[in-house]
Structures are given as structure tokens and as C-alpha cells.
Amino acid sequence: MSHALPVTPLDTLTAALRRALPVLPVIAVIALLGLPIAPSGEGGANIADAVSGLVVLCCAVHLLRTRRRPLSATAAVVLGLPVVGISVAAAGAADVGAGITGLTRYLQVFVLVPAAVLLLVRDRRDLRLLAWSFVALALWQGAVGVHQYVTGTGASYQGEDVRAVGTFGPTDVMGMATVVAFGVVCAVALALGAAEPRRRTIAVLCALVLLGPLALSFSRGAWIATAVACGAQLVLAGVRRAVKVVAVLVATGTILVGGLGVGSSMLQERLTSITQVADAPDQSVTDRYTMWAAATGMWREHPLTGVGLKGFPDYRDSHASLALSSGSDIAGAGAAYHKQALLSPHNMYLLVLSEQGLVGLLALAGSWLALLVGALRGLVRSRRPAQGAGNSANTGPDTNTGGGSGTDCALVACGLLVWQLVDFVYADIGGPSTVLTGVVFGVVGWWALMDPSATPAAREAAPAAAVRKEAAAR
Fold it and tell me: Three-class SS of residue 72?
């Protein structure tokens, strides 16, 4: 008579790592963004970018080993659409070297890394693992940022070194804000869609903790994008729940800010400045709108194909008014005071429009719109098993797609995409945190285009494939 050996924690960890092996390179990219960035960095490639190239290589090796069909026709079209505008703009660049650099960056962020993530994620368990990885990175960066604010070792803001920038340094003040915002969005999605009360509680606590460093980043664009994304997640999760949560948040905010006076004068002034776009705006707002006008002027002169990749800095001065300052003041967080040149309009849509023209903008926006529609359709699919509770076939977890109804995965994908699309109104690609944008589009792409439950045929084929696999193992 045989006796089963007891399962040790090491066995459990080994099994978990073995199961998560294909997606571990993606987690490595996320984890490496927790390392300090050199204060003198100018937004060039870093170790996370290098590892993202390895992720693409690992994906290619994985496909060769498993002999999988790389992408469906729909996925190939959606992910490949941006290549059209990017290639045309690269060919029209005045500086060949700059055009190649821009081509490489755009392909990395919008095509290659998303495709690799999409193909390495196998099921909803993998997607949840990536979501929790975002939360973990956000907690680490947020902790560093809060320490910077408390000790006065952050980036310079209004003459004081109090701006929380995490490990990204003062040259990428949006880096920590972006990471923490992704963490908030993922935590809210996991809290709204988790089936287990314990996981739901942990996710809620993580979201609440991350609100502090997000506020201390003093990033108005990140605040707006996070509010819109989380609001969309609440509505998609249920209107009644959304009303209750908003009522609690408003009441809590009124008590903390109005009653107890929580929040520094700097924070309140930064929040108020969001609405001051016409009446006495600060210099950063003036610079932003001046560069937006310059980007629009470039597009009017080159409406179809733009001025070419990396061409905005060369054409900026001839299209910008005298209201544009000489650059942003950079200091603190280990960096000496210097001016950082304003080399982009800080609006992804206008950057693409000015450098790639209508061809590039329609290609990129068309790809993003297709992902949004696919993600929302996936959310509707994820709710169908719950609606069919009377049907025995729909009462259990979806074991073929990683367990659970998938509502949390749908909210992660929809929330991240909405955040990114809103944030692109106030920011563009650039800096060490840019590689995360590629991971985000890959996560969204898997849910929108590759979820095994995407079609009835796939749902019917999955059990049969599992039976054949078990029989072969025997």
C-alpha cells in the first residue's frame, strides 16, 4: 500500500514557478522598473527595455517549441495596424538615424512587446499574476515616493524637494505616477471582480494605500486618468455599487479635507490648478498649450504623413509662440539643477499627428479602438456564466481559462486601457516607464483578442483538448 508524500511549501513554490514560467520574463520587466534610474538619465534605453527585447525573443522560442499558430488574423491586423503609419513616418524623417531610433521605439511599445505579452499569457491566472505584479511594483515605488516627500529628498517642486518620483528620478517625474496609477487601477479591478473575500480585502487595502503616493506625485494628468479609469471600472462593475462607492468616497474626502484639514497647501493648490487653464495658468500649463498649438501647426503643413519620426524638436521653434519657456526646471532627488528641453507636446495624439500625420493617427487610434471594443465585449462574455446560473454547465469556475468568471480580468484590461487613452491627452511615450505601456497593451490585447472563451467554438474545443492531453499523458 503506497503512501502519498506530504506536499511541502517548497514543492508548492516550485510548482507555481513551473506553471508561471512562460510569463516570468514579463514579470521580470515589471520588477526591473523598481531599480534606481541614474539621475542624469535622458530617457534612453534602460535594463527593463533590454529585457523587453528578451521577452520578444522568449516568445519566439516558445512559439517554435510549442508549434503554436502565432496570431489569429484579427489579432495580427489589430496589432500590425500601427506599423503602417510608423513606417511611412520613419521613411519621411529628415534625420535617418533619428527615424530609425523612433521606429524602434514605436515598434517596441505598440507592436512587439504587446504581441509578445499577448502570446506568453496563457490564461486568466497569468493575467491576474501580471495585475498583482503591477500592484507590487506600485507599492514599492509608492513607498519610495512617500519617503522622499517626508524626508524632503524628492524632486524639486515650488522650491522644495518634496515631489515623489520613486526610483525614476527628477528627469521622469511621470514615471512613479504612471506606475502607481497602474497599481491603483489593477487593485480596484481585482477588488471589484475577485470572488474570494480575502483577495478582495487585500486589493481594497492596496488601492487605498496607493492613493497617498499618487497624490504626492503632483501629477495632474495621472490624477485625472486614474479618476476616469476607476470611475469607468465602477460603472462597468455595476451602477448601484458605483453610486455607493462614490458616495462613500465623497463623504470621506469631505471629512478628511474639509473637517480635518488633511492635505498640504501644495497639494490643494495643484488640485485647484486643474481648472485654471484660461485664467492665470501656471507656466507648465502655458508650455503645454503652446506645444499643442505647435504640433497642430506642423500637422497643417504636413497633413497626411507629418514631419517624420523624431521631427517635433526640429520644427518646434518655427511653430511655437514666444510664450514657450526655455525648458522645465529639474532638480532634487540626487540631480543638480538644470533645464530639461521640451522636446514633445506632452500629448500622444498630437505627437503622432504632427510626426505621422493622419495616416499614423488613424492607424494607431484604430488599433486602440479595436482593443477597447474587444475588451468591452470580453466583459460581456465574462458575465454570461453568472447569468446562466440555472444551467449546470455554467455554475462552476472556468477551469479552461484559469478559473473564475473573468470579471476581474475584464476590469483590469478595460481599466488599464481607459487610463492609458486618457493619460495620452496629457503625456506621450518617453522615459524609463514607457516599456510598461507595451506591457499594458499586451495585457489588454490578450483579453480582447486571445481569451480562450472568446468564441463558442473555442469554449467547446477546450474541454476536448484537455481530455486528449490527459489521455496522452497516461
Answer: coil
**Contact assessment for residue 161 and residue 152, using Cβ atoms and an 8 Å cutoff:** yes
**DSSP strand pairing (155-157 vs 335-340):** unpaired
How many beta carbons lie within 10 A of that of residue 31, not counting itself? 16
Q: Whole-model pTM above 0.70?
A: yes
- Chain centroid to CA 245: 24
- Three-state DSSP at 336 gives strand
Could you give phi then psi for residue 337, rounded to 5 degrees?
-65, 135
Other CB atoms within a 10 A radius of the CB of residue 94 amount to 13
Alpha-carbon gap, residue 200 to 191, rounded angstroms: 4
Answer yes or no: are the C-beta atoms of 453 and 124 closer than 8 Å.
Answer: no
Q: At what angle do helices 124-151 and 197-216 cross, to 10 degrees?
A: 40
What would the pLDDT profile of 109-135 be if each residue is shown by its tens digit? Answer: 999 999 999 999 988 999 999 999 999
Q: Which residues contact 114 (CB under 8 A, 6 or more apart)?
A: 79, 438, 439, 441, 442, 445
Q: In sequence order, what DSSP letters do the residues of 26-41 get, joined into one string? A: HHHHHHHTTSPPPTT-
d(CA 78, CA 81): 6
Burial of 1 (0-12, 13-18, 19+ CB in 10 A): exposed
Q: How far is CA 277 from CA 46, 272, 280, 281, 433, in A?
A: 35, 10, 7, 5, 27
Cα 183 → chain centroid? 9
Angle at CA of residue 177, ends 360 and 315, nearest 5°: 35
Q: How confident is the model at residue 395 (pLDDT cuts 50, 70, 90)?
A: very low
pLDDT tens track for 296-337:
999 999 999 999 999 999 898 888 887 787 677 677 777 777
- Which residues neighbour 196 within 8 Å (Cβ) at sequence distance 6 or greater? none
